[in-house]
Structure formats: structure tokens, C-alpha cells
Amino acid sequence: MTAIAVDIPLLTLKGQQLEIGAEVKAAVSRVLDSGVYILGPENKAFDAEFAQAISVKYSLGVDSGTSALELALEAVGVGPGDEVIVPSFTFIATATAVSVLGAKPVFADVDPVTMTLDAKSVEGALSPRTKAVIAVHIFGQPCDLDPIVSLARSRKIAVIEDCAQSHLATYKGRPTGSIGDLSAFSFYPSKNLGAAGDAGAVTTNDEKLRDTINILRNCGRSAAAGYDHVRVGHNCRLDEIQAAVLRVKLLRLDAWTASRRRLAAIYDEGLAGLPLKRPPLGSESSKPVFHLYTVRTDRRDALAEDLRRHGIGTGVYYPTPVHLQPAYAALGIKRGALPVSEAASREALSLPMYPELSAADAGRVVETVRRFFK
Ligand SMILES: Cc1ncc(COP(=O)(O)O)c(C=O)c1O
């Protein structure tokens, strides 16, 4: 394979840094000068600002999206002997969050159009041990939550949204992260809202659950300070520097999201008519935010190689569905068990997507893909 310079990467944070680098540095200096590095005013302000941004009562900063999922599951009482239904076409943290609590992830399939959890498959995966279901808004596509929530309500099962890729996406007019009992956000640097390191948040409208997360994230303390530990907890706090960085970026999230949507529209129009599946652009009831713009084709690897030779970066999310990962070999799930997830893993290819990508470069991606299929 010859080394060819990629001049349109799959994603880059360089443009963002050029735009806001000075403000981010000022925010970091402000924290350093304050001498308060953990659970201080930046955390408090970010919690309030992020909660407002996604129309939810409470948001609590934590140290990663993975921790956010783990704490959310623990807060609704998931533990050994329980089962939690998760999609297989996701990042592995959705499932490992269940496993580290001693519970069992039960894998369900996804919808062939949105690639998000399919309610019918969830129904087939229910058992008397099911304690919760995690709906993942993969690539920023809102999962069809209504049938999942009504199934869950009828069985008294908790609904947790995995919003690691769906900041500001809306479902039937409501932001993702404001609908389930609890939701988990990741602010991994490349996410639509990213910190300068690992960070995450748990959101909820339920005051009791908010209190539980607050205790769990801070070593089981009943209050922010002091040594009164009311339950066995974790250290999953968000640090002040990350909260300050996130506050700067949150001010741009609307504009960045609009830019992602414009780029998705360019791809959608430009790729129309080709023998590949394009992600839904959205509708009145579902407004995606295109964390990734992922097409599907049975010529995926050849297309990726052709784009690479033309200096265009791509990504494969995810090459192996979670139920077929070595980490879950002990569950003994055979290939073929979840056909839509397995096909997606063979066919999915993500094209360059970041807010600073120019329309001209998106057009160049379109033309290169069109030439490939000629
Ligand atoms: C769907 C999904 N869930 C969970 C996570 C975990 O988030 P983090 O990397 O912040 O722990 C990610 C991040 O990659 C993700 O994409």
C-alpha cells in the first residue's frame, strides 16, 4: 500500500482549535489561577448550561461517557443476575457498562434504515430478568424511542439513552437525552461536543436519580465535601479544566450542528442515485446531528481504498458488531444471530464530517465517490 497524503481527513480538530483556541486557553488559565480543580464553579455552571441546552432538569458532569453509562445503570439498580438489552451495532462501552456491574448484556438488532435499536428485536430479547434497555442514537440518528419507552413502561424496565453521538439531536421535538429515565453523554474530544480529554455527563428529569448519580460519582459522599459516605461509590468526577473547556465549546454547538447538517445535505443530494444506502436526513419528528455521515455499500473496502488513493479519509464504525467481539465470546452467540447489525458492520463507511469541512471539499468527496461507482 503506497503512502498517500490524506488532505480531506475523516475528522480533524484543527479548525476548531483555530476558531476557539484563545478562548479555551483563557478558560484553562482561569481555572489554574483559581486553585479549584475539582467540583467547583465551572462544574456547577456547565451542569446548568448543558441541562438547559438539552431541555432536561439535571445534568451531572462525569469523567467519561463510559462512566456515565455505568453510573446510570447502577442508579436504576442494575446488578448481578440482571439483564440489560443493548444494540449490538454500537461502540462496545454500551455493553461493557452492563458487564462491569455483573449484569448480562442481551444483544438486540437494529433498524435497517436508522441503524438504531429496533423495538421488535427488543421485544424478542425481553425476559423476567430484564432490568433496563439502552437506546443508542448511533451516528447522531435519533432512535425511535416511543415504542421502546412504551414497552419498557409496561414491563417496569428503565430506559437509558446513550447520547454519546447525539448532542442536540431531537426526537419528536425533544432533545435526545431528555426522554429516557437517565441518559449518558460522552464528551470524548472528537464528539460533537468534545472536551480536551475524557469527559461525560449523566442527564435526568428525576430528582432522586440526580441525587443518586451525584453520590455515586463522588465516592458515595452524601454532599460535595466531607466524609459522610452513604453508599459504595466511585470517583467519576468531571474536573474543572474540562468543564471550563466544555463551556466554551457549548456556546458553538448550535452553529457546529447546523454546519454538520448542511454538509449532510450536500452529501445526500450529491450521492443520490448511487448504489449505496444514505443515512436519513431527518424529518419533522427526527432531527439527526451527523456525528458521522455513514453510507452503506457492499463494495465498502474498495470504496475506502479508492477514496484513500484520492487523499480522502474514511472510517469504519464498527467493523465487528459487539455480540461477535472476542470480549463476548463466552456468550456463545453465533454469526447470523443479528443479521442487520452484521450487515452494517460489513457495509458501513463513514465519510469526512466535521463542522469546518468546506462545502467545496464535501463536493470533492461526492465527485470521487460518484467516479468510483461509474
Ligand atoms: C455510542 C457510544 N457509547 C459510549 C461511548 C463511551 O464514551 P467515552 O469514550 O467518553 O467513555 C462512546 C464513545 O466513543 C460511544 O460512541
- What is the fourth-level CATH superfamily of the largest domain? Type I PLP-dependent aspartate aminotransferase-like (Major domain)
Main sheet overview: 7 strands, mixed
Work out the helix count.
12
**Estimated structural class:** alpha/beta
CATH architecture title of the largest domain: 3-Layer(aba) Sandwich
Would you state the CATH class of the largest domain? Alpha Beta
- Molecular shape: globular
Structural overview:
- The mean pLDDT is 97.
- The protein is 39% helix and 14% strand.
- The strands form three sheets. It has a seven-stranded mixed sheet with strand order 1-9-8-5-4-2-3, sandwiched between helices. Strands 7-6-10 form a three-stranded antiparallel sheet, with no helix packed on it.
- It is an alpha/beta fold and 374 residues long.
- The chain has two domains: 15-250, Aspartate Aminotransferase, domain 2, CATH 3.40.640.10; 253-373, Aspartate Aminotransferase, domain 1 (Alpha-Beta Complex).
- The two termini are 24 Å apart.
- It has twelve helices and twelve strands.
- Helix 3 (65-75) packs across helix 4 and helix 9 runs parallel beside helix 12.
- The chain has helices at residues 14-34, 41-53, 65-75, 93-99, 119-125, 145-155, 207-216, 240-250, 253-271, 300-309, 339-347, 359-373; strands at 58-62, 83-87, 104-108, 130-136, 158-162, 170-171, 174-175, 182-186, 200-204, 286-287, 293-296, 348-351.
- The chain binds pyridoxal-5'-phosphate.
- The site of pyridoxal-5'-phosphate (PLP) has 15 residues, from helix 3 and helix 4.
